[in-house]
Amino acid sequence: MAYQTFRQEYLQVPPVTRAYTTACVLTTAAVQLELITPFQLYFNPELIFKHFQAFTIMLVYVWSRRNPYVRMNFFGLLIFQAPFLPWVLMGFSLLLGNSIIVDLLGIAVGHIYFFLEDVFPNQPGGGRLLRTPSVLKAIFDTPEDDPNYNPLPEERPGGFAWGEGQRLGG
């Protein structure tokens, strides 16, 4: 009984707040149980953004494939359709002297995700292979609406039948 009440209260908290609070509690517990050290939680932007290009390019690739007719303008020099955006960004990265290995990795992962999520399920005999973990659904999905909830009372205040009048001039 107490578990159900806690669960109902927990699910009424907005999804972002719920996720943040859950992450804080789990992180604190993991440090106290010495499963991880505080040093492992250290935020180092250089380490994160150095290996981030792949994730960003992956998101750009998926977006560009889902929006193939959007026209893009790159610094006012190039005008192209959205599916070429990851390749233009990779070329720009190459012009800046950066390694394109991370870009190619992001494009490859984005292509695999796009294929498994958007192409394969629509093929004959295809199906969805990628499923959202139930833990994430429990954290981020909004609770279902109560079908018995009625925001309007049965009787109207004051006893007047508002909206049930006669037409003027009739």
Q: SSE layout and pairings?
A:
Blueprint: H1 2-12, H2 15-32, H3 45-50, H4 53-66, E1 71-74, E2 78-81, H5 85-95, H6 101-119, H7 134-140
Helix pairs in contact: 4-6
In short:
This protein is mostly helical and 170 residues long.
Tell me about this structure:
The protein is mainly alpha-helical. It has two domains: 1-42, no CATH class; 43-131, no CATH class. Helix content is 51%, strand content 5%. It contains seven helices and two strands, in the order ααααββααα. It has helices at residues 2-12, 15-32, 45-50, 53-66, 85-95, 101-119, 134-140; strands at residues 71-74, 78-81. 8% of the residues are buried. The mean pLDDT is 81. It is found in: Endoplasmic reticulum membrane. This is Derlin. Residues 160-170 have a biased composition (Gly residues).
Mean of the pLDDT scores? 81
Shape: extended
Strand content: under 5%
Structural class: mainly alpha
Radius of gyration: 26 Å
Order of neighbouring strands in the sheet with most strands:
1-2
As residue ranges, the low-confidence spans are none
Share of residues in helices = 40-55%
* Helix and strand element order: HHHHEEHHH
Descriptive labels:
170 residues; mainly alpha; two-stranded antiparallel ribbon; 5% strand
